[in-house]
């Protein structure tokens, strides 16, 4: 092999080595970028895991607090058909309030011997209440809030914001809400609790 041929081969080998060196340099730069991306991805993943954990803690805290807010203190379940007492602002299930008021009415009239037994016995109806008033057995009813015992003179009202809030909370944090029973279709659903004299 001549010197010229040898020099040509050496030049070719040098070209290959130079290309390999460039490739290695490029690969090192790519590796650095890749490592940086992996590091950023790991930080992002750790941040996401922390936020997920925080969110789970917040949901747990919310679930605990909303269980108290949406629970009827009479039946200890999620409020069904919530009604609010005007005098104090406390809310309860419709059926629970009605039972509470009927119990108070029964105590109010139960000890009076002049009242016929048929008017003292449950179930209390609007007709029985009307008869108690119109025959002069009672002149007023004494009801109170089941929670704060503040006297109640007005019919409880249905606050739709409360209804919507309880419904929304129930969809966010599922719990064992009772099946909503429809309200009575009577015009005055409190007629068996609050007497209103017909004009």
Overview in brief:
The chain is mainly α and 199 residues long.
Question: Which parts are unreliable, with pLDDT below 50 for 5 consecutive residues or more?
Answer: none
Largest sheet: 2 strands, antiparallel
Which geometry do the CA atoms define? rod-shaped
Sheet-strand content, in percent, reads: 5-15%
Rounded Rg: 39 Å
Helix share of residues? 55-70%
Element pattern in H and E: HEEHHHEEH
Key attributes of the depicted protein:
single chain, 199 residues, mainly alpha, two-stranded antiparallel ribbon, 5% strand, rod-shaped
Walk me through this protein's architecture.
- There is one protein chain.
- It contains five helices and four strands; from the N terminus they run αββαααββα.
- It is mainly α and 199 residues long.
- The strands form two sheets. The chain has a two-stranded antiparallel sheet with strand order 1-2.
- The relative contact order is 0.12.
- The mean pLDDT is 82.
């Amino acid at each position: 092999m001549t010197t010229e041929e040898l020099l040509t081969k050496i030049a070719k080998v040098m070209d290959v080595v130079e290309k390999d060196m460039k490739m290695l340099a490029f690969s090192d730069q790519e590796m650095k970028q890749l490592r940086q991306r992996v590091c950023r991805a790991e930080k992002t993943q750790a941040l996401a895991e922390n936020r997920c954990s925080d969110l789970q803690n917040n949901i747990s805290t919310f679930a605990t607090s909303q269980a108290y807010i949406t629970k009827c203190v009479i039946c200890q379940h999620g409020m069904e058909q919530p009604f609010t007492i005007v005098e104090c602002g406390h809310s309860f299930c419709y059926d629970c309030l009605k039972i509470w008021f009927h119990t108070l009415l029964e105590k109010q009239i139960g000890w009076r011997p002049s009242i016929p037994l048929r008017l003292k016995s449950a179930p209390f109806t609007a007709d029985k209440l009307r008869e108690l008033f119109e025959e002069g057995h009672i002149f007023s009813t004494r009801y109170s809030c089941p929670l704060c015992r503040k006297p109640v003179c007005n019919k409880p009202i249905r606050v739709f914001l409360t209804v919507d809030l309880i419904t929304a909370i129930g969809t966010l944090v599922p719990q064992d809400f009772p099946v909503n029973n429809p309200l009575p279709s009577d015009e005055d659903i409190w007629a068996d609790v609050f007497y209103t004299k017909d004009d």
